[in-house]
């Protein structure tokens, strides 16, 4: 039975929330957060029970000075037992730096929208597929065990192009797997998806990628983020990207809110009886800390406004057992 067939009857008992605020969130903010604050963010997220964090991206510092300290963040993250450190890499050069850093996973973005791909990476989707093949060859030649994950952005639609055909998304999924990606995910980069679209595309993607389909990435641009996460959950996805305080966004969706908020996802899963390993009090304390560091920036999410309902008093969650 495929994961999507199971999902209509049984939801996962446990899910993983990968915190991407340090990369996807901060890259959309003009002010540069000091490295000391980022290190504290990683430490407090870890103490709150988060076990996978996208700590940065290996891109030229002149393009994104906010992420120039990524190697230092990876080095610190690796000192925390059981913490998985992910980094984004746009090309082979970035991948080589990721391999050198010793990060556990590298995420390679590939836009299903041709227009977005050209605007974002100055390459067609198929040129990015070829680059993924070169990244796989470099990884293997180095003897590194770093995982290669491809995030299929604009999978549900694109501000620049409009409609993105599901058949093209599935074609590209197969192409990146053939090129050597270890796993793949689908991303609603500009908030075009609705739950029905999410269910249909993830179910179709499972027929191509099987258990290598390993992540859902949703933005809350039009208030659909949490609903879309639930739709993906029903198909069998149990790992999701999220940003603390809902920061982030996309330069091609001006004025949009960012990723679905980490704290909102953690609340939804806990309310449903699905384990995340996250301690709410510690996560919300971290949100307050980050809000202070980002004073003047627009933050999002809903849980912080009202807090937990009186009918829901959670004991501190135990962190997942270490391998």
Describe what this molecule looks like in 3D.
The chain is an alpha/beta fold. The chain is 41% helix and 14% strand. An 8-stranded parallel sheet has the order 1-8-7-6-5-4-3-2. Helix 5 links the parallel strand 3 and strand 4. Helix 7 runs parallel beside helix 8 (166-179) and helix 8 (166-179) runs parallel beside helix 9 (195-209). 48% of the residues are buried. Residues 4-9 and 315-323 have low confidence and may be disordered.
- State mean pLDDT (0 to 100 scale): 91
- How large, in whole angstroms, is the Cα Rg? 18 Å
What CATH architecture label applies?
A: Alpha-Beta Barrel
CATH topology annotation = TIM Barrel
Helix and strand succession? HEHHEHEHEHHEHEHEHEHHH
Q: Give the termini distance in whole angstroms.
A: 28 Å
Question: What share of residues are in beta strands?
Answer: 5-15%
Q: Assembly type of the shown chains?
A: single chain
Number of structural domains: 1
Please report the number of helical segments: 13
CATH level 4 superfamily: Aldolase class I
Q: How is this fold's topology laid out?
A:
Layout: H1 3-7, E1 16-19, H2 21-25, H3 35-47, E2 52-57, H4 70-77, E3 84-88, H5 92-101, E4 105-111, H6 114-121, H7 125-142, E5 147-153, H8 166-179, E6 183-188, H9 195-209, E7 213-218, H10 225-234, E8 239-242, H11 262-271, H12 280-293, H13 303-306
Parallel strand pairs: 1-8, 2-3, 3-4, 4-5, 5-6, 6-7, 7-8
Helix pairs in contact: 3-4, 3-12, 5-7, 7-8, 8-9, 9-10
């Amino acid at each position: 039975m495929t994961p999507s067939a199971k999902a209509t009857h049984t939801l996962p008992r446990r899910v993983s929330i990968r915190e991407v605020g340090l990369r996807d969130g901060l890259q959309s903010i003009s002010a540069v957060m000091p490295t000391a604050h980022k290190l504290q963010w990683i430490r407090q997220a870890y103490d709150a029970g988060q076990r996978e964090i996208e700590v940065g991206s290996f891109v030229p510092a002149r393009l994104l000075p906010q992420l120039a300290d990524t190697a230092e963040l990876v080095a610190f993250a690796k000192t925390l037992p059981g913490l998985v450190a992910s980094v984004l890499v746009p090309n082979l050069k970035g991948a080589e730096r990721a391999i050198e850093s010793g990060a556990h996973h590298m995420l390679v973005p590939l836009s299903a929208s041709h227009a977005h791909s050209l605007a974002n990476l100055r390459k067609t989707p198929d040129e990015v597929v070829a680059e993924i093949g070169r990244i796989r060859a470099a990884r293997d030649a180095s003897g590194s065990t770093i995982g290669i994950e491809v995030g299929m952005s604009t999978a549900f639609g694109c501000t620049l192009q409009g409609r993105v055909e599901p058949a093209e998304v599935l074609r590209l999924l197969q192409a990146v797997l053939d090129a050597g990606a270890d796993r793949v995910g689908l991303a609603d980069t500009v908030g075009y998806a609705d739950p029905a679209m999410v269910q249909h595309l993830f179910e179709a993607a499972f027929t191509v990628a099987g258990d290598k389909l390993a992540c859902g990435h949703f933005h809350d641009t039009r208030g659909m983020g949490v609903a879309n996460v639930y739709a993906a959950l029903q198909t069998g996805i149990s790992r999701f990207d999220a940003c603390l305080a809902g920061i982030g966004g996309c330069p091609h969706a001006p004025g949009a809110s960012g990723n679905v908020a980490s704290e909102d996802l953690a609340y939804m899963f806990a309310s449903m009886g699905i384990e995340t390993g996250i301690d709410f009090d510690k996560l919300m304390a971290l949100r307050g800390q980050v809000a202070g560091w980002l004073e003047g920036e627009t933050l999002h999410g809903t849980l912080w406004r009202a807090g937990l309902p009186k009918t829901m008093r959670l004991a501190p969650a135990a962190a997942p057992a270490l391998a």
